[in-house]
Amino acid sequence: MVICLWSAKLPSAVVVVVAVVVVVVVVVVVVVVVAVVAAKVAAVFVVVIVVVVVVVVVVVVVVVAVVAVVTSSFNIEFLFSESSNTKKRIAYFSLLVWVHRPKGRHGRQRL
């Protein structure tokens, strides 16, 4: 998996994060299975814990990968290769404005 990501020429930070997350997921699954076998808890509980951990890890990896790809200068140059510096600045400023937009109590946009 790490080799495939490396060959896709993603930023090295993404490859490192994905490798660490894969190792953490494997360790967490092994620890949960051992703990459940030792405690003899119901199998449904094990499945729920493993699914929740995997979903959280996948969401974190996707967010980190998207942020790394969007903020890397190589990809910004690639996306706007035929445009002027002004268009690049406008696109980057628009991204910053959207990320730092005012949010309400639950993270939704305020009206």
From TrEMBL:
Domain of life: Eukaryota
Transmembrane segments: 12-38, 44-70
Key word Membrane present: yes
Entry keywords, A to Z: Membrane, Transmembrane, Transmembrane helix
Name by which UniProt lists this protein: ABC transmembrane type-1 domain-containing protein
Protein's organism: Elysia marginata
Top-level taxonomy: Eukaryota, Metazoa, Spiralia, Lophotrochozoa, Mollusca
